[in-house]
Design the sequence.
């Protein structure tokens, strides 16, 4: 089920976080997966299909380590612009679905839109439309009937910007601690790779997590998977599976 509104974690209890990673897999995703498993944390990795084809063994590693593998499209395109141009949004998800489907274990598959691009913006007011043209297209496809999305985020300190300028993991950790303490709970957005090869090569998210996780625990935070979010539980309790036709060129 693709909703018009974003799924967030604002209704989690205080000091409860759900860790999510975008734009992988990348060269160090497997190491990050193993670190999180050792810490008893089940995260969600929203993978780009084009990257997942190159790092197929890493998908198996993520699955073995107890993480969820989500769909982040095949090409990391902005979906609103794609659908407005009569493009094939379903195909973007379907290509990645073929790669990750074997790791779903029969449960729902989570989806995150690249750049959070989900609803058109009213040019006069600058506010989002209430309905999503992307959701309308995707919900017509029976292949995607077990999806839940779009998963957004409550907390981000833009780790990719630190890697782009060659900053240290310590600097990024301080920025994330500030954002987490300010918000207090929710879905955290991080990146285990990038659609930009230069940023991917400089990614230090593994080092960031080795600093962040112990400090957050010292401050009383705990971690839960996306499936534990109240918003997701409500969707699973009320979801109706409908029929439709896939439009995939």
Sequence:
């Amino acid at each position: 089920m693709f909703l018009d509104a974003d799924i967030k974690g604002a209704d989690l209890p205080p000091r409860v976080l759900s860790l999510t990673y975008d734009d992988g897999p990348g060269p160090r995703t497997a190491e990050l997966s193993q670190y999180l498993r050792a810490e008893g944390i089940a995260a969600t990795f929203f993978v780009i299909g084009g990257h997942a084809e190159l790092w197929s063994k890493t998908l198996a590693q993520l699955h073995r380590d107890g993480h969820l593998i989500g769909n982040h499209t095949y090409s990391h395109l902005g979906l609103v612009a794609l659908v407005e141009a009569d493009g094939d949004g379903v195909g973007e998800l379907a290509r990645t679905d073929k790669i990750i489907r074997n790791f779903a274990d029969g449960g729902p598959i989570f989806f995150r839109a690249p750049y959070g691009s989900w609803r058109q913006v009213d040019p006069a007011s600058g506010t989002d439309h209430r309905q999503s043209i992307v959701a309308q297209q995707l919900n017509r496809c029976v292949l995607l009937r077990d999806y839940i999305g779009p998963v957004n985020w409550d907390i981000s300190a833009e780790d990719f910007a630190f890697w782009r300028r060659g900053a240290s993991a310590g600097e990024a950790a301080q920025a994330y601690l500030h954002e987490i303490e300010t918000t207090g709970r929710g879905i955290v957005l991080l990146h285990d790779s990038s659609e930009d090869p230069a940023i991917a090569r400089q990614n230090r998210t593994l080092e960031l997590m080795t600093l962040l996780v112990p400090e957050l625990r010292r401050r009383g935070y705990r971690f839960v998977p996306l499936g534990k979010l109240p918003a997701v539980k409500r969707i699973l309790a009320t979801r109706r599976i409908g029929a439709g036709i896939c439009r995939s060129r």
Q: What stands out?
A: Residues 169-183 form the longest helix (15 residues).
